[in-house]
Records
---
Amino acid sequence: MNAVREIGRRNAIRGGLALAASLALPSIARTQTSARVVVIGGGFGGAACARALKQFDAKLQVTLVEPNKVFTACPFSNEVIAGLRDIGAQQFGYEKIAAAGIDVVANAAAKVDPQVHRVTLADGSTLSYDRLVLAPGIEVRFDALSGYDEAASRKMPHAWQAGEQTLLLRRQIESMDDGGVVAIAVPANPLRCPPAPYERASLIAYYLKQHKPRSKVLILDAKDNFSQQRLFEKAWHEIYDGMIERISLSDGGRATAVDPATNTIVTEFGDHVAQVANVIPPQRAGRIAQVAGAADKTGWCPIDPMTFASKLLPDVHVIGDACLGGGIPKSAAAASAQGRACARAIVNGLAGKAPETPRLTGICYDTVAPGYAFSLAGLYQPKDDMFAEIEGGGTSALDAPREVRAREAEAAQSWYRTITEETFG
């Protein structure tokens, strides 16, 4: 436990960019010096993969396809919702990535033809590839909750893809009456960043405590248990006593429908009317993964964990939130680690070398108030055709003093600065 905690600490300082072995550039015989690699998706996974590909073999032709000229990061976006952070601190351009010799195409991928190795873009132009990396993140499943669709999300925001939805939820909370209820509907796993709904509840409660102290947060949960539950609940009792209520799956917390007209969330055991309703629906791999045929009936993309190669499409790799990663969480640190590991696997594969076993380390920070955070670190490697956690640790001691929580909060800020600098420059 202590050893893994130290691993997590070191990775926090270095940006959580896991896969220790990939920090040294591989020495390979470059048999395909002009191979074309297209990466779809410019988030933490895709951007890290594109940069690592160029680092590992400068002669590769690397193209990053991303329709947004500015990336808005999800980590720390809960602080934006709580008024603790400006949205500008979440936004990053691709200029430094382009300056590294990567062709950045500001367009959306519309179609993938794996038989002829071609990507068709939204404007009709095409890109040919020798290897394709899909890093599309998640897609919100508007069909999974009765009454919830894209129009409803403008009244009951999900804010699970950072940007305008983040700001919409913030504005709603700022304009609500004191004494109102902010309801958060949380889906079952798998979902992007599993502890994030509870961090969000914590930071919204912090805002309410400062500005609308008669208000409360209601969590309607489709799960009975969640990551680091005891730490969250202890913090809620210490800091927000009585302000946060959680209804678990067994107690009827799973949302089954919504009514945007009345801001009502319907559960199996009753209806809950909220002044602000944050509805987080189930998710699946991003749309291009579905269109390409890389996703299976679960909605996620099965991969070979040794190389991140798709099990459904030839010469296609899938990384980040979109893949079926087994025990490895859907998080920015994990996506970045997978991006570098995938890049190494591709470069070695093009050189005719056998794949190396990836060992991915990652860390997740949860902030429940300014100056109060805890972390969870993990070491993952392939096992039984999936990623499995072989070691784990974090600041899990319930009786840890506040000084420890304060240090974790500082480490979280350092981690964010470093991972965004190393990913986006």
---
Amino acid sequence: MSSHSIDADIKVRWAEGQSAYSPSTPEELLLIAVDLLVRDRGSEAARSFIDQVFERFASHAAVPIAPNGR
């Protein structure tokens, strides 16, 4: 598994104000993306979308991940 970092500045404007995010790992980016998806579409629509994404990878062989994430 490769190791990399992300350098991003994400700014989101809402009717209630704005939010800023600076993820540095894929995990942080995913958390931000899921949070924004749920806020925008609601939890059921977000879950349906995420299920569709995972279905694309369902045919791939499962890759075991060691406890330390590598």
---
Amino acid sequence: MYRVLIVDDEEPVLDSYAFLLEMPGTEFSLVGKGRSGFEAIKLIHELKPDVVFMDINIPGIDGIEVIAEVHKKVPGTIFILSTAYERFDLAQRAIPLGIFAYLVKPVSKKTFLSTLEAVRSALLERSPVPPILSGDLAERQFLKEAIWKRMTQEEWEKYKDSFSFHSDKGIVCLIELEEDQDRWCRAIAASLFFHHRCLFTLYHNKALILIPEDVDRRLLVKELEEIIRTTVPESVFSAFAVGESHRGPDLYLSCGEALTEMGKKRSYADLRLRERLRIIQIRRRIGLSSSEETESIFRALWEDIFGTYDFPTSKAKMVALFTLLIDDLTGCYSGPNEEDPPIAPAEEIMPLLDSDEWEAWSREACGRLHDLFSLRRSGNYPLPLIKAIGYLHERYAEQIQLSTVSDAAQVSTAYLSRLFSEHLKTTFIDYLTELRVAKAEKLIRETRMTMKEVSHAVGYQDPNYFTKIFKKATGLPPTMYALGKEK
């Protein structure tokens, strides 16, 4: 079977050519599709096709420029040009490149198949081309080894000629994702291929992309931000870093700059992660854990924040936190409510002048809120509800149903559901889920159990389902929660 690459930015053309190639008896196999000039160059080096159907008017550099750049590097490859217009000037440019055929779109089935037959005959008459190192392997070796150390000018010229670089400069990008790295990094790289020549590989759990062009770094950063925003789901944590543009022999400098920037972003991301985790812990535990434990988490949170941000920004973050806590306590910001907030966060926090005033105010305010939460969360509940809560706290790791708990509390399921709603402002299922997630948080933080073991320990037999429940409750997958725990 002969290997065929199709390059066209129109999906109907790609689909129709692919359909015709897959017809019985053609002796041709589709190995790839490209949609831009830069992507075509990469795929030609990587796939080494026997035949390339190349549209002329494609994004990036046009089809004739692509062939001009690669045809000496892939001897024996047959190139077939296609375009929507029959133009003599294009034919003139194509003749010196040894183009096998020139098709005017729309291409009929008869014309396409007859062209394939002519290609097959030409391939049969040719001597086999000696095997060479696959482009993909060569790219990986170049990206993982050569660009991380200084090259001589002679070495750079060899690489430049081998990969058909048309610039003496390049720039390095690193991308890190929380999950599905291969999938999303390849999608990001594919988007970059529409506008730039790129070399891509996965390296040390990061996407490593080299753009061998003299690119404006600021514009590239904006472009990457937009590609990641539109490609990667918001729920997937991502970070990227871009070095400066350097001459080929000095590409190692761009690697080092990108790596340093990624380290800074990773440190900042870790700080934000710890901040989120501690806020989650405070909101879930205040009034349930001891005042000392709540105060310890709260102090760790504000010391991190005040040690990182300026004083006005830190105070603003604390206003947001206390507003969340007051809403958790009273619901006064969630809807109509006649209950007055016990604290006015903005009015009380923003006038504070220094860290001493903040520490004195926060100690008193945190203690006051803890007492109010304790009263609200451990009030005079009906005996059946107390029995039900006790049963759940003892047996949360078992397969529990409302009917089982109502039998233990000696009431009907409907009555028990109403008790949860009226006194705890939640449902039976939500209360059990919150309890299990809280227990899971503790196990992740304090033990070395695997996620599967944690899942089983808190009553979930399916670890994947546990992950979904945990992420829905906390906003983070348990794997990321584990990364943020104290060492």
